[in-house]
Write a structure and sequence with these properties.
Blueprint: H1 5-13, E1 22-25, H2 34-48, E2 53-57, E3 59-61, E4 69-72, E5 75-76, H3 82-92, E6 101-107, E7 110-120, E8 134-135, E9 142-143
Parallel strand pairs: 1-2
Antiparallel strand pairs: 2-7, 3-4, 5-7, 6-7, 8-9
Length: 150
């Protein structure tokens, strides 16, 4: 699927709610610390262990209406690179998830700021997050390996 800034703005304008295949994350979800990196591994592995889907990093959720996008929350490209995000995803999930696509979407008005759209395919194998637990996309609660249908 092709992603661009207009498509992301349309999701916000139309108030497209998070669902089994779509999740919004504010820019602080990508802080460079172990806690946030572990959360990334849980989120991404949960999508792969379910139906696959898209995580958009750099979208603030509405405080009153959780799961609805409110606005763009820019990520500074010089602080959080695409390569850093790829490395976190690939190093903290076992086995590695093949064919993940990370789309950096530059913001028109600010040259160094962007958002990341991460496309995660449904996988044919079960994936563990960095805490050695299996997650699936239902409030990404831990689950047993045998509960994952493959």
């Amino acid at each position: 699927m092709e992603w661009d800034l207009q498509k992301v703005k349309d999701l916000i304008k139309e108030k497209i709610e998070e669902n089994l295949n779509l999740d919004y994350k504010a820019s602080d979800s990508l802080q460079q610390n172990d806690k946030k990196a572990n959360e990334i591994s849980k989120d991404v592995s949960a999508f792969a262990n379910s139906d696959g889907g898209v995580i958009i990093y750099g979208i603030r959720e509405d405080n009153q209406n959780k799961h609805l996008p409110e606005s763009i929350d820019p990520i500074n490209r010089s602080e959080i690179s695409k390569e850093w995000l790829e490395q976190i995803i690939q190093s903290r999930i076992r086995p590695r998830i093949e064919n993940i696509i990370i789309h950096p979407i530059p913001l028109e008005e600010e040259t160094n700021n962007l958002i990341y759209v991460v496309e995660i395919p449904q996988s044919n194998t079960a994936h563990q997050a960095s805490d050695r637990k299996y997650y699936k996309r239902y409030h990404y609660c831990p689950t047993k390996r045998f509960q994952l249908k493959r």
